[in-house]
Amino acid sequence: MNQQILIYVVGVFAFLTIVWAIFLEARLRKVFGGKKPGDLENILREIARELQALHGSREDMEKYLESVEKRLNRSAQHVGIVRFNPFKDAGGDQSFALAIMDERKNGIVLSSLYGRDTSRIYAKPLDKGTSTYKLSNEELQAVEDALRKS
Question: Per-residue pLDDT tens for 12-39?
Fold first, then answer.
């Protein structure tokens, strides 16, 4: 009787061992992607090469994004325009003041004064939203409008 129990226990153990081996084989096939386990070193080298290439690509992308960010900081981000009529003899609001500034509020104010016989254009630099030149009311309004819209 003891021999029968022993045979039964050994049989169950053998069956469980076979099931476990099949389970491990399936997992190893997933890990190796159909390649032989002996290729593990080659697989790890290939993964290391891919990681290095990915790291290099990431560094290139970071450099590119830095250059884009620098260019974006210098781009026109604050724009305001005011149309007005400076002369009583000219019809309509043909004159304008245009403020264009980057992220740091550096830029220019362009003013165009339109009259029947003559037109004038003025440009004044802006540094942090202010100018060393006296700004007209319309130019100030254009700067304020540009800053408010952002």
Answer: 899 999 999 999 888 877 776 666 666 7
- Residue spans per domain, the chain: 36-73, 78-149
Count of residues in the chain: 150
Task: Estimate to the nearest angstrom the gap between the alpha carbon of 24 and the chain centroid.
Answer: 44
The residues pairing with 113 across neighbouring beta strands, listed in sequence order, are 120
For 64-123, the pLDDT digits (tens) are 999 988 888 788 889 999 998 877 766 678 899 999 999 889 999 999 988 777 888 999
For residue 52 the two structure tokens come to: 């290095």
Q: Does the predicted TM-score (pTM) go above 0.70?
A: no
CA distances (Å), 86 to each of 76, 133, 135, in order?
27, 19, 15
110 and 97 in contact (C-beta within 8 Å)? yes
